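User: Here's a structure from my thesis project, written as structure tokens. My advisor, Dr. K., wants to see whether a designed sequence matches the one we expressed. Can you design one independently, without my sequence as a hint?
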């Protein structure tokens, strides 16, 4: 389908505030947007322990929104709000995510709405968090050790941190406001270990001081995401029975737990299923950051001139390397937007379906692939792709890419933080790769032996600038890697079976030499899902949004991916050396096709020019940067002008 804009046809921009106006009453959407746009003016320099600006701003934002449970129930609204807050301030997004998606989302998912009888969480009068990570063994969450012991006499629970390694980590170190958290803990009743459930716990009282039985450390600064993070320990904190998010389970009069979930792994999967909301909506936030970053970098590059001796005074976008990076970033932003929509669609299907009775995927490295493999892969791909994209654009913008004012450092730190936050990406990819290899090893999927794949590329479209080319190529790569890993695992299993030596860790002996291959296979799976979403998005208009030359953008992002995976593509024989050598020329051809449409493409992909504009967006970048920091573009270098409107009021620097 030809998606090039026809004369007179308007491009539908994806401006996030416009999207919110369609999802909220226009007045409420305008209030929300104004609060986001004004956020820097209210951000002071108070120490982390007393700086609760993100939490206060969350409460003000909540006044423009429906009750939190209604927001969580509306996937499109939750995604748009996630994107808007991430663009304006990644730290505020993290606060929004913890409160709405994870804390209130757990109450909704696990039948705990009654735990918020006065609506303090629903309207963010109390700030909500989600405490799952334990600092001593952070990562997989398969070994949660915080204990919730049932007291049959009181029909209540007491929460304990067994030792310092089980201290929880979250952004709870800002004192001075009421806070609650959904705490993931192992339920113990008598001698019975009931597995990991969630409990709604008071972290502080109404006065903002730690609640009885709770201790909160001083702030632990995290430069990538500046929030008042701290460590939380529990010393017999009391939890009423109705603060247990039982999800259909119950404890009878004799103190015996009855859980409809069939196993401890199934219970853990269900408890952590609130992560589905994160994985479904985080790609929207990441797509917003990608579109905003790519648009800024393109506008900045469009106004720059090269002073190299090849062609002094020529635009830097004449250079193919700059085109591949900047125009390629626009292509990646398009693909990431399509991935975001695919994630929301997947989540809608999961919500409509009956909850699973148990893990469909083994919990080998972490719970996340068992909670939902495709959503977890969308999360892993989106966060890593955006970190790589922003890192590249920061470099392409030179020193201007390093200025906090231009937002790229904050966006990069945000994307990198989510390489671990919200489910560790490496563990997600390891489990996804292992699971696919085990599926391929089933008798009905077993490969037919050497020579099972064609040595030529006849099965692919002949033109690598065709949007259909990359999905076919990456699918072939996934199939070959999966069959190779399945064969290697099968051979090792047989060798271990025949070995006279017994091992206490037979599964580790099996998989340890294969972990790099499993990780690679998981990554290729994620890229395949993204490729399929991009080609589907390039042939269909939806959600009132279209992009000129969408098929060319999908094709260009595919070629970027192919160059990244050149080694595996060659090693598996999916592509020949001559095909790999031809990739840069194909990228050049696509950049030439896209050249005239770039202003309209940028307008369509940029979600936040009115929300998160910087000096990089302005035709005269230097003048805009000076003005933003209280200096006059026409003033002498040693003069001082006015008061600052930005983050610094120092003027007159001669450096």
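Assistant: Designed independently from the structure alone:
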């Amino acid at each position: 389908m030809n998606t090039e804009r026809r004369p007179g046809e308007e491009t539908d921009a994806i401006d996030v505030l416009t999207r919110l106006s369609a999802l909220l009453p226009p007045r409420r959407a305008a209030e929300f947007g104004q609060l986001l746009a004004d956020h820097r003016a209210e951000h002071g320099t108070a120490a982390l322990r007393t700086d609760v600006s993100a939490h206060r701003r969350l409460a003000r934002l909540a006044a423009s929104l429906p009750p939190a449970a209604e927001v969580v129930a509306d996937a499109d609204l939750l995604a748009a709000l996630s994107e808007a807050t991430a663009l304006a301030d990644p730290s505020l997004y993290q606060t929004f995510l913890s409160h709405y998606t994870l804390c209130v989302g757990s109450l909704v998912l696990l039948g705990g709405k009654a735990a918020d009888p006065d609506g303090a969480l629903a309207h963010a009068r109390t700030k909500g968090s989600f405490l799952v990570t334990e600092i001593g063994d952070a990562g997989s969450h398969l070994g949660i050790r915080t204990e919730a012991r049932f007291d049959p006499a009181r029909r209540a629970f007491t929460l304990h941190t067994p030792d310092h390694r089980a201290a929880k980590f979250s952004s709870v170190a800002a004192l001075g406001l009421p806070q609650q958290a959904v705490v993931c803990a192992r339920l113990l009743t008598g001698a019975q270990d009931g597995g990991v459930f969630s409990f709604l716990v008071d972290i502080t009282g109404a006065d903002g001081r730690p609640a009885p039985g709770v201790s909160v450390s001083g702030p632990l600064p995290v430069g990538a995401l500046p929030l008042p993070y701290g460590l939380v320990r529990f010393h017999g904190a009391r939890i009423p029975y109705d603060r247990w998010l039982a999800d259909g389970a119950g404890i009878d009069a004799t103190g015996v737990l009855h859980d409809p979930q069939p196993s401890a792994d199934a219970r853990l999967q269900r408890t952590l299923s609130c992560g589905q909301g994160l994985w479904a909506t985080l790609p929207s936030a990441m797509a917003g950051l990608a579109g905003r970053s790519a648009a800024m970098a393109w506008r900045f590059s469009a106004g720059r001139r090269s002073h190299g001796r090849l062609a002094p005074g020529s635009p830097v976008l004449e250079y193919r390397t700059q085109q591949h990076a900047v125009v390629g970033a626009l292509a990646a932003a398009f693909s990431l937007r399509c991935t975001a929509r695919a994630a929301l669609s997947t989540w809608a299907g999961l919500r409509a379906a009956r909850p699973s009775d148990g893990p469909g995927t083994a919990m080998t490295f972490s719970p996340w692939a068992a909670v939902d493999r495709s959503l977890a892969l969308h999360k892993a791909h989106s966060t890593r792709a955006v970190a790589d994209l922003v890192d590249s654009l920061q470099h392409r913008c030179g020193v201007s890419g390093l200025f906090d004012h231009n937002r790229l450092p904050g966006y990069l730190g945000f994307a990198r933080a989510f390489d671990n936050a919200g489910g560790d990406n490496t563990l997600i990819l390891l489990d996804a790769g292992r699971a696919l290899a085990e599926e391929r090893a089933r008798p009905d999927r077993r490969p037919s032996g050497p020579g099972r794949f064609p040595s030529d590329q006849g099965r692919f479209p002949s033109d690598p600038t065709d949007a259909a080319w990359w999905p076919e190529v990456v699918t072939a790569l996934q199939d070959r890697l999966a069959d190779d890993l399945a064969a290697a695992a099968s051979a090792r299993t047989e060798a271990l079976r025949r070995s006279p030596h017994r091992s206490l860790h037979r599964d580790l002996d099996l998989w340890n030499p294969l972990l790099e291959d499993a990780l690679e296979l998981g990554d290729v799976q994620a890229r395949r899902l993204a490729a399929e979403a991009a080609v589907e998005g390039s042939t269909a208009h939806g959600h009132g949004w279209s992009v000129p030359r969408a098929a060319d953008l999908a094709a260009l992002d595919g070629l970027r991916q192919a160059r990244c995976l050149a080694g595996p593509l060659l090693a598996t024989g999916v592509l020949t050396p001559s095909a790999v050598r031809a990739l840069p020329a194909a990228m050049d051809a696509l950049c030439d096709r896209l050249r005239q449409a770039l202003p309209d493409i940028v307008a369509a992909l940029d979600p936040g020019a009115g929300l998160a504009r910087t000096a990089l967006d302005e035709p005269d970048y230097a003048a805009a940067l000076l003005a933003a920091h209280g200096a006059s573009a026409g003033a002498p270098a040693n003069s001082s002008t006015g008061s600052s409107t930005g983050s610094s009021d120092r003027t007159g620097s001669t450096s």
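When you compare it with your expressed construct, this may help: The longest helix spans residues 320-352.
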